[in-house]
Amino acid sequence: MHHANHFYGHAHVLARYAGLGDGHPPRINGYIQHGWNIGDGLAPGHPYAERTPSLLWSEQTRRRAWSVGRRNVTVIGAPFVYLLATARQPGPAQPERAGTIWYPFHGWEGQHVKGDHRELIARIRDTEPGPVTVCLYWHEHRMRRVRRLYENAGFRVVCHGYRGHWWKDTDPEFLHRQLAELRRHARVASNRLTSAIFYGIAAGCEPAVYGDPMVLAAEDPTFGGTARIRRQWPELHGEQVHLPTAVEIARAELGTDHRHPPAALRELLGWADPQEETT
Q: For all residues of the chain together, what is the average pLDDT?
């Protein structure tokens, strides 16, 4: 299995939905798009075996993949869509949603982010009407200097966990933890349009995208970067966003209508035989 299929516990979410339980998921026949992007669904720089099936989130991504010459592509919807189909719905005792969960743009093992967190904190304080939870990616959360800036600003600071890397330290509960946090907040916001914004919309939050988008070291400009994102999805940028429009866009970008039934998903991922050897 391609190691990126394990990111954020995606393979575990799909296996659970497919009826294979909570154990180690079988090998997936293909490469699952592991995050929202404006390219062909594959992460730049990740090893990729030619002719391996690409299992993409949306029809839009499939068309982009086709335009750059990829042919073995199938739309299955985002793993988060499958999580929503299986996760327990909030009960009547669930506290009323309150405040905002804010996702500062983050780096990863190979690339760091450059930006002014103090300026971002001031913008958040001026904009958000209620209590703020700041969710830092594991990479920034372990940086004491960055984490303390948000804590000292009076924000609640959380981290959904480690995404996993090269088949190590996969956290099968990552998306479950993220969904639980989203469901306790009224708003979801970030300084860039990312997966978290679309997840938040799907989970019932009002979205916002504002503030300095910051700079990712050696950011790949192949598909147009932040400038293109702002041009193509202007409706999702701003401190206040038209919710019905946002819901419609999120549904398309997450491929909600492309979610496969369990049996069809097992067939598509190469899991038709539940005894298939795990890796």
A: 89
